[in-house]
Amino acid sequence: MSLEESPREPRFTYSMLDKISVASVAIGLQTLRLNPMRTLLSTLGIIMGVAALVSVLSLGDGMQRYARDQIERTTDLHSISLTPSLFRTVDGQRFPRTDVATLDQSDAESLAVLTAGRAVVTLLLSGQALVTTRSDTIPRAAQVLGTLANVESELPAPLAAGRFFTDDEVRRSAPVVVVSSALARRLSAGAGVESVIGDSVLFQGQARLVIGVLAPETGEQQQLAFMPLEAARSALPPALVGRPMTTVVKARRVEDVTQIRKSVEGWLAQKFGTSWQDRMTIATNQSRVAQAQQGMRLFKLFMGALTGISLLVGGIGIMNVLLASVIERTREIGIRKATGARQRHILLQFLSESVTISTAGSMIGVLLGVSASYTVTAFMRSVTSAPIHAGFSLGTLLIAVGASVIVGLTFGLYPALRAARLSPVDAIHRE
Description:
Blueprint: H1 14-34, H2 36-74, E1 79-84, E2 87-90, E3 93-96, H3 105-115, E4 119-133, E5 140-147, E6 159-162, H4 167-171, E7 176-179, H5 181-188, E8 200-203, E9 206-214, E10 224-228, H6 229-235, E11 246-251, H7 257-272, H8 276-279, E12 280-283, H9 286-328, H10 330-338, H11 343-384, H12 394-420, H13 424-429
Parallel strand pairs: 5-10, 7-9
Antiparallel strand pairs: 1-11, 1-12, 2-3, 4-5, 4-8, 4-11, 6-9, 7-10, 8-9
Helix pairs in contact: 1-11, 2-9, 2-11, 2-12, 9-11, 9-12, 11-12
């Protein structure tokens, strides 16, 4: 008689094993229902741990988003500037260049295609000019910025009144200007900043029609005037060494600055050849970009580690409850093993209890954590007037649920192994 046909050997099929495994999971879930108080107490630690993790991650995302917005608006960390070299150095002496490299609007469009939506590319011509009005001839100093229409999304403040100039006005070099709130206050002579819209203002004697005013900012000092590129050139006084036009590539994220700079350097090498570094200066705040990236990473790692302690405490609670359950149900485990249950079935039974506790706790904890984060940010807005909002994302949800399941498996493994390794004879006689 062959081994397969021997009546002494039990014959298990895959369907039988699946039924036993499902029964083990069902027994584990039934045990949780029969002991609601114990289940609630063991779930409470996971609920608090996940709630703390979700709330901190959401607050961290919101604060990071707020910090990024402030960095974009108040610093030039995102900017990569390309400036033509006006001089060349020979034997330690500087001589004016006769072949100054120039970049025009078509080059800006080419760079915009190269960065594929990861950056805003514009041209910038800047300088100081004297500003007067027809009714007030006392000159005032203003920083004139000639640029393209796409810079509207990157203005230091939103428009409070009026509008920004259009692409058509840039092509026509229309004599229009958008002024900052500080400059508008000086020009309005106390009549209100919106009153300057529609007025004609003189820059170095050249008339410009005011079409927009920026919103005021706290501690605002600069008197800015934004004009179409060529309109700004005629509104600025002549410079002794020329006035180079700068191409500004402003990345949308700090993390993209390094990669975008490499792409721009490759584009310059293709356009001007291997000597491009002698003809064009490319500048970024690389060290400050690295500091900003490091600070953001450290902040999230610290907050995540801090709340991870709460999750570990919840895992220890699960382990304690399951260990107590193993001791109380020793006889039950022995009977199950004596009637054919294998070690993996007992292991599966207790792991299902652990994972169920951690998963249910994570779901409740996510809801509690999201509610807490939105409540906290609402309080912060009311106290500080800072536009900060909680940033809940799919990544935060996956991290919270994944971490709780891992904690449940990790801390439920030892009690499950201890139950699975019990000898059937010893387990039945122990009570």
